[in-house]
């Protein structure tokens, strides 16, 4: 058994402001003895336009945000799963990346978001992520950590069960969905989609979420969760705006759950989900 921590923040266009929230959470996670802290998609910044998203991007070597978190991971000896932006080839777009920083502070795994959020809903949201983001081209094989075998996906990937089933087939025991869900789609779909992914993969699901207003136009749903391989909500955070301290800075939130790999094995043994790949193609 090992403790996982899920963190909820409200990123703006200011990387140092966002780093401050994340540092607070690393300290709280380490104080609880967590083996890993899961942070949302785009923790480094959320901009107010596609052009601003591209103008703010920095390589991990040059990003004070990533370097700051590597330092926190090393000094507190805790792994950190965090969504950031990285420059794409050609300089016109960015990558929507998920990093695994190990407890020594090294970036040891990297996943690039496969499915981009291009939507036009009456009454909002109207977002074309592909205007500023280059889509990824591979599923990252699950890798070992102190919490078990981790499978990584990002946000809108949640709507495509093929990716989580592929990760399950490669024996992922924990699947992560760092997110910045919109409020209307979050209200309608967030919790049922996440529970379904946990139930059908028989894996822990950890979904760290952005919450509240990032700028005047953009707001996220929050409701970060850790879900058991049986589909139970083990930890849940709120969907209100974050409270603010005396300086007006948002106070980030954190929740914890035990990850018990014996539970994963027990449920998979008691209820084997053997796919009829003779009837439909293997994913
Ligand atoms: O813009 C950034 O920098 C960070 N990226 C995001 O916030 C992304 C793309 S706009 N958000 C989503 O994928 C929300 C999906 C969603 O809300 C749904 O599937 O309903």
Automatic annotation (TrEMBL):
<dbReference type="InterPro" id="IPR045254">
    <property type="entry name" value="Nit1/2_C-N_Hydrolase"/>
</dbReference>
<keyword id="KW-0963">Cytoplasm</keyword>
<dbReference type="GO" id="GO:0005737">
    <property type="term" value="C:cytoplasm"/>
</dbReference>
<feature type="domain" description="CN hydrolase">
    <location>
        <begin position="1"/>
        <end position="261"/>
    </location>
</feature>
<protein>
    <submittedName>
        <fullName>Nitrilase</fullName>
    </submittedName>
</protein>
<dbReference type="InterPro" id="IPR036526">
    <property type="entry name" value="C-N_Hydrolase_sf"/>
</dbReference>
<dbReference type="Pfam" id="PF00795">
    <property type="entry name" value="CN_hydrolase"/>
</dbReference>
<keyword id="KW-0378">Hydrolase</keyword>
<dbReference type="GO" id="GO:0016811">
    <property type="term" value="F:hydrolase activity, acting on carbon-nitrogen (but not peptide) bonds, in linear amides"/>
</dbReference>
<dbReference type="InterPro" id="IPR003010">
    <property type="entry name" value="C-N_Hydrolase"/>
</dbReference>
<comment type="similarity">
    <text>Belongs to the carbon-nitrogen hydrolase superfamily. NIT1/NIT2 family.</text>
</comment>
